Amino acid sequence: MAEPPPPLILASASPRRRELLGGLGIPFTVEVAQVVEFEDPAADPRLLVAHNAALKADWVAARHPAALVLGADTTVFLDGSVLNKPADGAEARAMLRRLSGRTHTVFTGLALRRLSTGLKEDEGVTSEVTFRILDEAVIEAYLARVHTLDKAGGYSIQEGSELIVAGYRGSFTNIMGLPLETTKHILTRCGQIG
Predict the structure, then answer these.
(1) Is there a catalytic annotation at residue 58?
(2) What is the pLDDT of residues 65-114, one digit of tens each?
(3) For residue 137, what pLDDT band results from cuts at 50, 70 and 90?
(4) What are the CA-CA distances from residue 37 to residues 9, 11, 51, 178 (Å)?
(5) Domain 8-189 CATH class label
(6) Annotated catalytic residue: which of 40, 44, 58, 73?
(7) Whole-structure pTM value
(8) 160 phi and psi, to 5 degrees?
(9) Which helix (H) or strand (E) element contains residue 166?
(10) Are 134 and 100 in contact (CB under 8 A)?
(11) Are 107 and 75 spatial neighbours (Cβ–Cβ below 8 Å)?
(12) What are the residue boundaries of the structural domains of the chain, listed by start?
């Protein structure tokens, strides 16, 4: 009889990541890593998300060495600058104005850890999103419908997108915060999914 896979822990506070990972149909628990994420707007976005994903996964894995721990981090990048989660409504409005009529890149870093076996997998995924041209009325309508303060770039691709998004290229779930195709691939490679 085959040995069951190790328990899977999602090292993330994001309800969207929890929902997306749940869609794969594999059991997991959630433990939020008590870490301070690196958020320098001038940082290389690939390095920033890789660092933060690893930081979360390493913190939880240190407390559960036999478990398989998945960490993830997502950010938005435009004009050489990282757009993290807005601090308040004014910053969310400013981000939407910057994104208006433009194409930006969404970067996600994934980190998978299992300390007991020395497993260490890191992946990066990118997608592109093109925004409609947004006037102030559309920005206000969008912000009235969608809570954006916990979302990189101050928007959510799955909520009210008809108001702001003209199109996208790449993984839709990456833009949401957890690229399911890549996540499934690395979990399969690690024996979590048969």
Answers:
(1) no
(2) 999 999 999 999 999 999 989 999 999 999 999 999 999 999 999 999 99
(3) very high
(4) 19, 13, 8, 17
(5) alpha beta
(6) 73
(7) 0.92
(8) 65, 20
(9) strand 165-169
(10) yes
(11) yes
(12) 8-189
